[in-house]
Amino acid sequence: MNQTQTRGLPRWTTQTILYAVLLIGGILMIIPFVWMLATSLKPAKEVFLGNFFPIAPTLDNFQAVLKKVPFARWYLNSLIVATLSTLSVAFFDSLVGFVLAKYEFRGKNVIFVFILSTLMVPTEMLIIPWFILSNSLNWVDTYWGIMFPGIMTAFGVFLMKQFMEGIPSELLDAARIDGVSEFGLFWRIAMPLVKPALAALCIFNFLGNWNAFLWPVIITEKMDMRTVPVGLAFFSGEAGSAWELIMAGASMATIPFLIVFLIFQRQIIKGIALTGLKG
Fold this sequence. Notes:
Blueprint: H1 3-7, H2 11-40, H3 60-68, H4 71-102, H5 108-117, H6 123-136, H7 143-147, H8 154-164, H9 169-177, H10 182-193, H11 195-210, H12 214-219, H13 228-239, H14 243-253, H15 255-277
Helix pairs in contact: 2-14, 3-14, 4-8, 4-11, 5-8, 9-10, 11-15, 13-14
């Protein structure tokens, strides 16, 4: 009898229990999502019957939502804001992280600590100054007004700095000898070497901007400038007890999450592992 069996449960038993717990947890987490999809396919008369799955599935609820509100425009707004914000974060956070990691200059540590200290400030405390600035510069109901607070992130700078420090300085010196410019060192040498961290940052930032609610609901007044979460919140209030319409709108709002996860699930898992291991 081996040491594992004498001290506790056999290894296969432990793994079976762990997999069973994970399976049960996964099922419990996916039930609300399945219920949302099922309700979105139910006719209005079936919503309060108590059946989990629709008896006579229909797509009329999705058509009704698209006719009642400019859902396609909300999708476009969210896509523009999330995409541009993600591109900005990917470039500027990486650039700042590279400078802080690979260059020596007076006050570098002070700047880095100042950047990290912004993580301690709750977003709610910044809403009023942001709005005053946006209103004074006529940024209300504009794409720039929605996305300017997220064009750079302190977490992104911290993450990219940690990974940039792992790039050998000798490699950069060799590139300098070959005539590569300082920006070329960043763009041609450093960026390809930190692709896993960059992919994780882009994915999390895109999903975070797509799901943002507090700032977009404050800075947008016109219906056509609302993002998907904001528009869906207002539509839920207008729909009242029409749960089949609310669930249809919520189902359409989750499509980007599913697409991003299905396409980039490996990068998401790798990014979670990297952010937990790199220090």
